[in-house]
Amino acid sequence: MLAAGQVFAQKTLKEAYKDYFPIGVAVAPRNLTGPEVELIVRQFNSVTPENAMKMGPIHPEPGRYAWEAADAIVDFARRNGMKVRGHTLCWHNQTPRWFFTDSTGKRVTRDVLLARLKQHISDVAGRYRGKVYAWDVVNEAVPDTGTSIYRNSGFYEIIGEDYIEKAFEYAHAADPDALLFYNDYNTENHSKRERIFQLLKKLKAKNVPVHGVGLQGHWSVYEPSRDDLEKSIRQFAGLGLAVQITELDVSVYPKEHERRDGAAASKQSVSQETLARQADHYKMLFDVLRKNKDVVTGVTFWNVSDKSSWLDNFPVRGRKDYPLLFDENYAPKPAFHSVVDF
């Protein structure tokens, strides 16, 4: 492992982008001790809880909240002068099962689910009022395919499409000063981008307190194109919304559309040629982001380094990915230099 002085000899991310936008990173409590702490504090000026504030982890049972992990991340950020992005107040994918059912296991009514949603958002956003500057309020509410604007989730099936506007209203009431974001992935896909745009346009027309859109940025060395990224940024900004890249990583593999096993792939290491391609792609992405600094108000990387990424084993089981700016020993990769040297 390289010594800290070797790792940090050059300009840092937050120094390079001090005149552009905050540079954030998704963290878990395990990242807040040990060798990653210096890397996080030196390189980044914003943190996002990777999982600790999602509905299931923070509210596992009726009337019981598990605050410890989220509190630890918020306290770490405040001690180190870092911003906090809250993630996420309403998401179908990690909602605890009890949220949608009564004591007999039957599906709850619209009124009951709205009351539970309001209580959850009020409690969580209220606890961190004044400590979290921005929230991903609703996450991934638009399906990947088809023509529907709305994903057929439990929230949509029970409440209807207005669960989204209600969530924003509840969040705004709990913390009127927080910036409220709609967050989604595949925002550079033409069909999905158009449907997300229509959703946000409807919310804005109703004066729902939505302030920005999060483009997750789970990309690869093969996509998106410069034109597609720029179109997404400018189209959403045309609604008067701030744009943030909320979950950035650049996989070294083509995008997979289905989960599969890939045990043989786990033995593969990443080639210098691929790392160079990744660096070129990161350079293009940040060229576009800097060019649009009038509307891009934050960029957050999803995980600290290649030592541990959510893309390890996903979507291909047994496969290691190398999607970030720092390698498994926390040393800067070619992609790091392509992002900070401009």
UniProtKB/TrEMBL annotation:
BP GO annotations: polysaccharide catabolic process
PROSITE patterns documented for this protein: GH10_1, GH10_2
Active-site residues from the entry: 247
SMART domains: Glyco_10 (SM00633)
Protein name listed in UniProt: Beta-xylanase
Domain GH10: 7-342
Similarity annotation: Belongs to the glycosyl hydrolase 10 (cellulase F) family.
Domain of life: Bacteria
GO molecular function: endo-1,4-beta-xylanase activity
Enzyme Commission code: 3.2.1.8
Record-linked Pfam families: Glyco_hydro_10
Organism of origin: Dyadobacter sp. 676
Keywords assigned by UniProt, alphabetized: Carbohydrate metabolism, Glycosidase, Hydrolase, Polysaccharide degradation
